[in-house]
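User: I'm curious what two different proteins look like when written out as structure tokens. Can you demonstrate?

Assistant: Sure. I'll show them one after the other, since each token string lines up with its own sequence. Here's the first protein:
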Amino acid sequence: MTTAQYVVLSIATPALYVAVSTALYMLLARDLITRGLWSRYPKWAEKFTLCAACSGTWYGLGLAALSWWQGWPFAGLPGDNVITVLVIAAWTKTFTPILAEMHIRALINTSDDEDGADHG
């Protein structure tokens, strides 16, 4: 990996990982398009998927495994380091709920319904 690639990945992976983690949270817990899936979850899975921080942590660990396997850096940390894995999990645990709330508020604010109800 060249120095330029390392720098670009170091800058891009924090934003990319939190975006992917939040997208997985929204898809697997709330979105209408996947209602057929999440409406059938057992209770333990439902509790896990409805918690943005909890599921964000686990999705982040999955992304950290991908980072480890590919050797991608994260915010300047080497991808093949245990500390990097923990940092990615903490990062997604912190920022998945924040981005998810922003997403939900945007859905409510852009709703065409006169009652302002969230249907998505």
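Here's a second, unrelated protein for contrast:
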Amino acid sequence: MAGRRKRKSKPLKPKPKLPKMFECPRCGKITLEINVKNGKAEIRCGNCHLIYEMENVPQVYGKVDIYGKFIDVYAEKGAEIG
């Protein structure tokens, strides 16, 4: 009985990394930083100094989810934020 050749395994694709900095809807630069503590999220832009705080953020939300909610709020309120 002859042995079979070993099949080459497919190389694993690296998992995509989630961003730490996001694009600011006001100035368009990728300088928006999100900090989460005790159910509150603070969103700050390092370029135009936009600041927004979100209360009652669920623990299951990641920074990407918070950014999505922030973009929705910014689209509604716009110039009132800041």
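A detail about the second structure: The mean pLDDT is 89.
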